[in-house]
## 1
Amino acid sequence: MSEHSNTANPVRLPIVLLVDDEPMSLQVLRRTLDEEFTVLTADNVADAEKVLSEIPVQVVVSDQRMPDMSGTDFLTHVRTQWPDVIRIIISAYTDPVDLIKGINEAGIYSFVPKPWQPEHLILTLKNATRLFALQKENELLNLELKVTAPQLDSQLQHKRRVLKERHHFDNIACAPDSPMKGICAQVARVAPYDISVLVTGESGTGKELITRALHYTSHRADKPFVKENCGAMPVQLLESELFGHTRGAFTGANTDRVGILEKADGGTVFLDEIGDTSLEFQVKLLRFLQEGELRPLGSNRRRKVNVRVISATNRNLETEVRAGRFREDLYYRLATVPIHLPPLREREMDIPVIANRILQSIMISYGKPVEGFTDEAMECISAYRWPGNVRELENEVRRMLVMADDPVLGADLLSPKVLKNVNSDEDEDMPVSLEIGSLKDRVEVLEARILKETLIRNKWNKSKAALELGLSRVGLRAKLERYGLEQHKLGNE
């Protein structure tokens, strides 16, 4: 039985069909998605197919475990009957056979694990409906345009030029005195040669950015660049993704599949999170690197493949080798040239440059222009240690832009975790350590931090800050003078 939502809404929202035999699950999903989509529901496969035959559904979201048919079997049927519909599975189970079957037969767009997060689910569905719209737009353009071979070649050449320019080392955001300048120069010298490179560094430091620059400044730039995240992927699925498989190679392998290494022939393969792979997989990868040949799962025929393999990890592979978790011979194969990217906290001079580059980019994508950051906001951003590195910084800048009402992004828009790091280290009279001194001294350190954080959040409006802290204006002023904060005259009195 299907239910419609948003029928009174004058805005035409994307149509999503939810299929689950549990009424409570359907109800929770519908409530989560109701504001963003026109939501239809079905508690059995027959009703779902009836809806699909009568209504132009854009995305179907199916539970994997249902009594009459599994989610992958149902979506395989949907793929045959309604191939344009984007297909998504929700499941608490991550059986590799189901994953492979979903990819190969059902052609699913995404697996959403249970328990699902509302923000992640909504974002996944928004991306899926966007893909559906782009597919339809592409079909219309194909009907209207008759592209000749020379025109297509010209378009491809233009796209290649754009990619090369976008991913050149000169476009990596960093300050003139940044250690990244030396790293980029080193990588630029390595790029023209077919030599293996291992890029290490914490998550979010820009490992993929460096890898793409390596590819697009090499002689392989006109060939494919393919990325595979090796982290936490079952061995069989990872082997299938890289080496391919033949029909019947394992349960669920109903068709032949060409692996990533073969698809990228002549180009570059980027193996991210290589340190998370199993020893069993490492043996097979080492054999490929030594021989330059691969054998798809279930096949007796070897295939010659010419690719450059670049790998990356946030682990210390030398430590992993000593611990017996990573093969030493594979490590030396991958790390002919090791490149280590320092975290943001070790290159503070880059933070303003990267923050401004991120802001310029998201202003365009969000269609919301601003003039930039206030000096105080940039001081706070530069003082924070950014444990999540560039990825965390990007999230913070996005949040500031979305929340901003003024043409300049002020420090009051920063999240509490960033403001709590503001110690006014530049103020010589303010105590800065919680690790030394008497209890009284440490309490004063904490009090000074809370005062400044509260003032920044309230745009230095002392009346609001005093009210929030439960102080009188006279009491607040005394504390500001005591901790050297009275010199700030940035806000309203």
Note: DSSP finds 20 helices and 16 strands in the chain.
## 2
Amino acid sequence: MRTRPAARAGQYAALLGYLVFLAFPFVWLASTAFKPPTELAGLHPTWIPQDPTLANFRQAFDEQPLLRAAFNSLLTASAAAFVAVAVATPLAYVMARRRGALARAATGWVVVSQAFPFVLLIIPLFLVLKNVRLVDSLPGLVLVYVVWALPFALWMLTGYVRAVPAELEEAAAVDGAGRLRTLMSVTVPLLAPGIAATALFAFVSAWNEFFFALVLLKTPEQQTLPVLLTRFIGAEGVADLGPLAAAAFLATLPSLLVFALIQRRITGSLLAGAVKG
């Protein structure tokens, strides 16, 4: 009994340390974004700006087309998340309910595909997109993001489908529902937390992705926000720190907002399922 309070205190201390570790980059980025050039060049940095200013944000918008790049990122990330979830949901249902050689092969493909590095995939992807004339286009980038997110989405949703009692689907079949009707009316509503989590993963991965967008997009009007941020670094590698921090701070907000909204959906669905159970 004496060790329980100490163990609990240790757990809270570890959790607090982990939260501080995660929050430090974002807090420091926000602090840098609101500092004037004199404070950024100071020898003694401070956590809280002594003379906060919005000049870095104005300069960032004046120097680079941030809104257009943000729209490109939002479009590609949303489309990739939607397509990945739409394709992965029925495939995950088949993989979870069919225990044959094909399902085992698909599961093995999901595991093996995660081991391939970006550099190994970019050349064949570039050649494929070139043959179908999708290089330097947002649809081509969406296709790449879907292919990249699909294995992990399948792995996530397969686990959620297996957690759904098969008796519910059998009851629907007794009532005359077919496979598709059972999937859409019985299984998918119960998969709402898993679908939300998978969509969040696909969206955030596409929103923050840099390497594929850098290689596949050459037209400035097509570039996404992570690629555009590199323009704040000069030819000699010297970063325009204030505007760069301001633009990077704005770039992190949409993913945090999406996470907050979907997290509420996930929590609400889990609580609703527990109450109904």
Note: The radius of gyration is 23 Å.
## 3
Amino acid sequence: MDMMTLWHLTAWEFATLAFAALLVGFSKTAVSGANTVSLALFAAVLPARASTGVLLPLLIAGDVLAVLTYRRHAHWPTLWRLFPAVAAGVVVGTLFLMRADDEAVRTSIGAILLLMAAVTVWRRRAADRAARAAADTEGEPGERSGPSGPEQATSRAGRIKARSYGVLGGFTTMVANAGGPVMSLYLLSAGFRKLGFLGTSAFFFLIVNTSKVPFSVGLGLIDAESLLLDAALVLFVVPGALLGKWAVGRINQRLFEHLVIAATVVGGVQLLVR
């Protein structure tokens, strides 16, 4: 694989990757969209394609920690609804990686992340306007309380949305480990609160990221050199996860949603301008 080994990294480059690994742990137990910053930092130090192979085992380590922390809060009906579409997206992403260069990977993922963020902001504002209108009609306060759990996606529109986000999530997670923001935006749009959001996404990405390993090995993205670098960086994932667990209880729902969207936009812009 065309990448720098652990021994060829400068102290500054290793420190950048270590900080990105800490953000991986934080994103898994607190603000999922922060993972796009890790993605951008890895792509800044390593070749974009090679960086996905180094990042994947670190993400799996973070997923394990997140499952141990939030395993009781997963919403399995949502997971089963998403998996078929995600599998299709992973296959498409694998075919794309067989042909795409680094620039095409960065541009595609950055554009998708910004588009998804824009759609989510539009949907949330529309929901706020509808809630205020309903409150005015009923004589209740206009503050949006939000649903306590996920909305039911039994309607045709709900099924189309789940499949669309699922395919995009599978594609982006295979191409650049950037499925986190896409699925975060889906879970927000479905009305998940913090703990349900984190528990559902924890199991989702543990299963999806683990299933990607054979594809990544087959593409040459994971090898002995990348795993050696992972062995050094995984030590920074654990404190990041502990920091996220501490922080999530101190973040209210509205701020949580804003942080997820903001992190998604930052990561998308970084990929496009690099």
Note: Confidence is low (pLDDT under 50) at residues 140-149.
## 4
Amino acid sequence: MSGFLAGLCVAILPLLAAGFWLGRRTARPQNLGDLGTPVEHATFETLHTASLAAPPLRAGLTEETARKSARRLRSLLGTDALCLTDLKDVLVWDGVGGHHRTEIMELLAGPLESGRGEAFPLTCATPDCPVRWAVVAPLTVDDRVHGALVACAPRESAVLVRAAGEVARWVSVQLELADLDQSRTRLIEAEIKALRAQISPHFIFNSLAVIASFVRTDPERARELLLEFADFTRYSFRRHGDFTTLADELHAIDHYLALVRARFGDRLSVTLQIAPEVLPVALPFLCLQPLVENAVKHGLEGKAVKCRIQITAQDAGAEALVVIEDDGAGMDPVLLRRILAGEDSPSGGIGLSNVDDRLRQVYGDDYGLVIETAPNAGMKVTARLPKYQPGVHSAGRLTRE
């Protein structure tokens, strides 16, 4: 008997496979074009709806983001009503039965505390209200409950319970990504603060000392340097925008070099070759100035010889290529690798690793600094900047007041 059943299965399997293939070939509704079978069409519609709901949620859970995504989420579940809540209030109610808001928040106390989904019958005195049952699915980020997704329907449904749980998990993933984006933003801001702190008291003291030395002998020169100092510090400590333009960054570098030239005189020679078409390119704020400062430190400080620094910015198709090169002391490549890896931070190293990290965070690992150096062979630092990058926009030019 068992051999007969096995033979029957072997005979039927090819027929089932052929039927499945034929069904896929023939079950193509005329109004769906190239989208395929009804199953494929439903899959596409689900993924498309989810993709439309995702962008608002990537900004976190607020009234505005909840309002923009609620209708898409209700479409995914196919319910009469859906609401999104935080820990205290209903952020948005989409669909019928909005008068259940207060009751929903009262029922949420348990699920929000436990972090587990539940289903509840709703009481309603309105005869034609279709909302009689609520499925609650908490929204969690890093095991902390941030709110809830509540799907409302006419009757209890085990399928809706599971579907609401899956959609809530998907929403929680979007909120976790939003939290990661905010963490990255806070990290970049902290790194910019670290760079600002690295505009050291040593540099400020030397600049002011140079300015003071000209007060009696050349008051006009002292005034010019004071303005250069004011413009440089205003740019370095500005509070708006994570990004700037290449033109503004080079303008700040010019202020910085004016102060350095006043101190070192003819010992510093700087050559600039800048292609005008790359000046509007946006880049992370305080991205190039630390590289120039590093070139000055390695080329001049502690030495009596003349230092040459060359700054070039070239158009390279979809990218701008910025190169800062000096003929100073150079560095051991092994030490440089430790600096970029965060394992060592001698004078000047924080700026290099900071800039390298921020370029990689904004543009990806392919856009880290390329550094060529060796002891007593100078240093050449190359930065590639995409001309167009989503989310990278200059905050505008600062002008002297």
Note: DSSP finds twelve helices and twelve strands in the chain.
